[in-house]
Design goal:
alpha/beta; 50% helix; 18% strand; binds ligand C2E; binds magnesium ion; EAL domain-containing protein
């Protein structure tokens, strides 16, 4: 034991580095396999109107039923896919499948995540349009979520893509807002219609005082720019009260529902429509 401790750092580092490399390579092979053998599936998590508690949309989230390791989350494998061209094929698969499964869901939006790697691809806008045509999914019901990190430093490269998508009627949402370094000044110059405030701020509401200040500030600035604010990871009624007080419009999180298979999401939407009928505004009736 004493002997190995005397070795240089690089020597002890090497086996671990090799292990990582091997793990990555085998994951890459398994991922390519997963696409061909239909091991991927989608779950849908509702987004709720804070005032009325009505479901306004669903976000599609990717799951991988690995033959040996059970159900894997994106955090377990997306980092590998993003290092290869596989991510673009996966993002296409997700968009196509989500559009097919959510088409008959009703008049709600469908949010789909797209990797920055995919957004930098030259043909991405054409591919999105082709998928919408093939599936018959209405563009105005689709919302593409991009992370803050996607737009930083890449702004020029993807500006054209974003403009094309937006001009086709697709909406764009800025995901995990607050975790990167984008400011609301960036946002003002992008065709973004929604900001999703990251879960880390929401879970600190009522816990750390600065979280409340940050969320309140983002909501206020978002409202003044005409951008919808969605809070992600809402787990408690207390957090929801904060959001309502600040004027955030939408919320998503375990308080309302975990991500669900499409059948369960459909059932949830029906129940939600019965429990919270649309508001009939008396001043509209007089027209
Ligand atoms: P995201 O887009 O911010 O998605 C929200 C994540 O928070 C989801 O994790 C969801 O299951 C989780 N979540 C929702 N409500 C709560 C809550 O109340 N509490 C807590 N603790 N967590 C909550 P998930 O499904 O593991 O996805 C993680 C990330 O992976 C996503 O973050 C998204 O960035 C990425 N991702 C997921 N699906 C896809 C996909 O199809 N394509 C791409 N490119 N990325 C994806
Ligand atoms: Mg998202
Ligand atoms: Mg998010
Ligand atoms: Mg997030």
């Amino acid at each position: 034991r004493a002997k190995s401790r005397r070795r240089g750092g690089a020597v002890r580092f090497e086996p671990q580095f090799e292990r990582e490399l091997k793990r990555r390579r085998s994951l890459e092979i398994e991922l390519a396999d997963a696409l061909e053998h239909e091991q991927f599936s989608l779950v849908f998590q509702p987004e709720i109107d804070v005032e009325t508690r009505r479901i306004v949309g669903f976000e599609a989230l990717l799951r991988w039923d690995h033959p040996g390791r059970g159900r894997l989350l994106p955090v377990d494998f997306l980092w590998v896919a993003e290092g290869t061209t596989l991510i673009t094929r996966i993002d296409s698969w997700v968009l196509r499948t989500a559009c097919m499964q959510a088409r008959d869901l009703g008049d709600v939006t469908l949010a789909v995540n797209m990797s920055p790697v995919t957004l930098r691809h030259a043909g991405v806008a054409d591919e999105v349009m082709r998928i919408l045509e093939e599936t018959g999914f209405p563009p105005h019901r689709l919302e593409i979520e991009i992370t803050e990190t996607a737009i930083i430093g890449e702004a020029r490269e993807i500006t054209d893509v974003l403009a094309r998508l937006r001009n086709s009627g697709i909406r764009l949402a800025l995901d995990d807002f607050g975790t990167g370094h984008a400011s609301l000044l960036h946002v003002r110059n992008l065709p973004v219609s929604k900001i999703k405030i990251d879960r880390t701020f929401i879970c600190n509401l009522g816990v750390a005082r600065d979280a409340a200040s940050i969320v309140e500030y983002v909501v206020r600035l978002g409202r003044s720019l005409g951008i919808t604010l969605t809070a992600e990871g809402v787990e408690t009624e207390e957090q929801l009260r904060f959001l309502r007080a600040f004027g955030a419009q939408q919320a998503q999180g375990y308080l309302f529902s975990a991500p669900l298979p499409v059948e369960a999401a459909t059932a949830m939407l029906e129940a939600n429509r019965k429990a919270f009928p649309a508001l009939v505004r008396p001043w509209r009736r007089t027209v």
